[in-house]
Write a structure and sequence with these properties.
By secondary structure, this protein is of the alpha+beta class. Helices cover 68% and strands 8% of the residues. The protein folds into 3 domains: 2-197, no CATH class; 211-286; 293-411, Histidine kinase-like ATPase, C-terminal domain (Heat Shock Protein 90). The chain has helices spanning 2-31, 45-79, 96-101, 103-145, 159-174, 176-194, 199-253, 259-286, 289-294, 296-306, 323-344, 380-388; strands at 311-315, 349-356, 359-366, 393-397, 404-411.
Amino acid sequence: MRWVEAGWDVLFLISGLPLWAGAMIMLSVWAQPGGQILRADDADTAVRFALSVVVVVLTALALAPFLTSWQRRRFRALRATEIHAIETPRVHRGQIRQALRSEALWRQALYHLIAGPVIGLGLVLLAVLGALAVFVAIALPQHALRMSGHYQHPYGEKFWGQVSYLLVAGTVAVFAPRLIRYLVRADEFAARRLLGPSETIVLARRVQSLSDSRAAAVEAADTERRRIERDLHDGAQQRLMSLAVHLGIARKTLRDVPPDAMAVIVDAHEQVKQAMAEIRNLVRGLHPAVLDDRGLDAALSGVAARSAVPVRLAVGATGPLSASVETVAYFVVSEALANVVKHSRASQASVEVAREADVLLVRVTDDGVGGADAHGGTGLTGLAHRVASVDGRLRLTSPTGGPTVLTAELPCGV
């Protein structure tokens, strides 16, 4: 089984040799002590070497996107490994400046020029050592038994020298499957790190994906709240209204009803009115219909008008806002004014709503006694979670003696 897996691994590595061929040839030429590029008998050697490096690097940058595309197909077809694509500039399209500044393109060029060819040379070296083991295994008995005295041995006439060659090559042959697997893993590791997006990009994409998912969840929840609000308003609330009207008519018009029966009618009428008030509060807590009908300014005007503490409201030009941001801003003001009435003993409050660039600022101030604590069970913890659901931030300043300032910063870029 190990050799079968090694066969597939060898096939995978061999499939990469054509894509690494140019760089492998260049590396082998540079590695030759007497190669033309490294000859030291010419005064222009350094200049020619530098120019050759520049040409090779530019060629690698130009071909990197195409070679990377083929490498992705290779990994997908032979290893079932997906190397995620990343947008890179093309040198041949006149984007040389962008290409030289592209980290992704440089990482791809590094793989095609160095990492991949080195792995390919490792495979070639394993093949050479394997062939050497076979050759020495055949030649050694002939040498030992002197079956062909005229045979010229390429490794010298010393018997133990050939034994050493056989041990080294045989050891490589025995461990060949494991060594090949290491080469495959090295290729996969290098490809993931150099051909695909960097860890920074992957993390940024993951954060963006989580942000989009959370925004979608918040939007879906807000849509569901609006649906429930409509159902309660158009369904249960209207039925209760009709029932209250009929009970009210019966309460005022019926005269010959026994006192016990009239008491039941009166009690039922009062309970229906209480149920309607509770549903109105519930609907207002789910999603105020005025937000959809008349916008944030009108909704906040209604909140300020219902407050038991006089409120000075100032709403600037907010521009287009998403439904989730409008809803959060509404509940920030509603909860803050409710806390002012319950806890602050204030004589006046103010609400300011303004947009600065892509941030909606909501500030609620009161002249009460201060000392408010965000963790004191005043509902601010839940409000902070609601603000965080749209990537916003909630800040509270409330020194003893006042004033208390609650500020919400809601991202609203569209």
